[in-house]
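DM from R.C. (forwarded with permission)

"hey, sorry to bug you on a friday — could you get me a structure for this? deadline for the figure draft is monday and I only need the backbone to look sensible"
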Amino acid sequence: MPMEPPAADRHVTYAVAILVTVAAVLVAVNIKPIPLAAEVKVTADPAGAEIWVDGRLEGRAPLQAYVNPGQHKFESRALGYEASGVITQTFEDGGSGFVNIKLKPIPAALQIVSDLTSGSLRLEGSSNVEILPREGSLSTRLPVSARAIELASGNIRVVAPVEIKPAQMPEFNGSVLTANARVVALAWGGGKAYLTASFSPVDVYIDDKLAANLVSEGKMLPSPIAPGRHKVRLVSSGQVFERPVQVAEVPGIALLISAEQNLGNLIVRTNVEGAQIYLDDAEFRSSSAAGENFIGNLRVRTVMVSVRKQGYATPDAKPVQLRRGETLEVSFDLKAEEATPAAAVPQSPVK
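My reply, with the result:
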């Protein structure tokens, strides 16, 4: 009688047979093995930015994500930064990978409003130099790299040291320095607003309401300023300086600069777009906007204002007495001319 193999050997033989049988079944029915997820480490600058994978929010950077083998799309978002572009990366079965996303900060807004008719603007930390237009207003952007706002016009100098942080109200790193000019600076952002001045005392009115009385130092306003156009008036020692200021959606700074020149401002309102604005019967602006049209830094005098547009009846000109530092308004309601009916063509008698 033949001897049986030991029990341990029999168990191994049975196990091998089972594995061979299972493998044969898998091949026969074409069952594929389950794919293994790939491990991905995702980082972002700034840390804490949202991480989106294939259009779904996964969390905040840095994080570990697990994705199926194949191609995947990564994006990142953060307050105060531009949304990243899509980064596409392919991962192997059971593999690993690394994705790093750097976001670009959104620059702060900067608005210069002044009674200067020329000048240059330079941002320390930036190579850009911008020319101040004749009307004294200029809107641009403040990159995070900016360390100071510098404006020069003849013997007039303004230097405002600043610190710019994404999604936050810009801060002034020291006093606003001036030569031969007076400056009030308004900063906003992050649900806050702040006023400071290079001189005192000065009353600052925003939309005809007293916002602050600046005596020796800046003041945080009790409530933020809504984005949009606002009328800002400075009153100091009987002198008035008034300008419209555009508060942007993004954080920013407005510098109101007065060299106490004998200049005034004008707002011309029209009910139609594309009208020509005339001052003293000379065309000043070839195409106006419907609504408010601001004209700054006009020599103080009585000026005759009129508007004209083809196809509309020309209203009478209106006199406006400009006043130093102040902004006056004048409105025109243009009415379309009635079409002249075509003359009847005489008919020849029928013979």
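R.C.: lifesaver. The longest strand covers residues 228-236.
me: no worries. The first helix runs from residue 7 to 29.
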